[in-house]
Structure formats: structure tokens, C-alpha cells
Design brief:
Pfam families: AzlD. This is Putative membrane protein. InterPro entries: Brnchd-chn_aa_trnsp_AzlD. The structure is a single chain. By secondary structure, the chain is mostly helical. The chain has two domains: 32 residues; 62 residues, no CATH class. Helix 4 runs antiparallel to helix 5. The radius of gyration is 19 Å and the shape is flat. It starts with a helix and ends with a helix. The model has no long low-confidence stretch (mean pLDDT 89).
Length: 101
């Protein structure tokens, strides 16, 4: 295995860009006052991203995965993101164990 310096540089540049955008967002948010509507919009971004990730699975796989995506979507409306994902994983595991997947 050889070390390609261009590939290494590209990976480091992407990592730096990712870290910079995340840190700058946290830093800049301190200086912005958010009203109720904007705060609600920002808080709805993580569930929307989660649904964008799991929706293709719901339409491209079997019954167990589709049901787990529905459980994840419903849980994401009220529960924290980690709990929602855990509920979906648990649901697909149980449904596959009983033979639906």
C-alpha cells in the first residue's frame, strides 16, 4: 500500500472544511437572537434529515424495514433523535426475528 499525498491532502482538506463549518455555526449562533419561529425551524432540521436518510429504505426493501422506518418517523416527532433511531433498529430486529424480513 502506498501513500498518495494528493489523496491525503484532499481528505485533510475535507475534514478541515467540515470542522470549520460545524464550529463556525456554533460560534455564530451565539450572536443571533432567534424568535420562536426560527428556533422551531432549526429544531425541525434533524428529523427532516433523518427522514431523508431512511425514506429510501422504506420504499426499496421489505415489510420489516418499511415498518421500522414508520416507527422511526413517528418516534422522531416527539422523542430525541437517538431514541428514535434506536426504536427503528429495535423494530426491524424484532420483525426480522419473527420472520417478516
Amino acid at each position: 500500500m502506498t501513500l498518495d499525498l494528493q489523496t491525503l491532502f484532499a481528505i485533510l482538506a475535507m475534514a478541515a472544511a467540515t470542522i470549520l463549518t460545524r464550529v463556525s455555526g456554533l460560534f455564530l449562533l451565539r450572536y443571533v437572537s432567534l424568535d420562536r419561529g426560527r428556533r422551531k425551524a432549526i429544531e425541525s432540521i434533524p428529523p427532516a434529515v433523518l427522514m431523508a436518510v431512511v425514506a429510501p429504505t422504506a420504499f426499496a426493501t421489505g415489510i420489516a424495514e418499511s415498518a421500522a422506518c414508520a416507527v422511526t418517523a413517528l418516534a422522531a416527532l416527539r422523542l430525541p433523535m437517538l431514541v428514535s433511531v434506536a426504536a427503528g433498529v429495535f423494530c426491524v430486529a424484532v420483525l426480522r426475528a419473527i420472520g417478516l424480513g
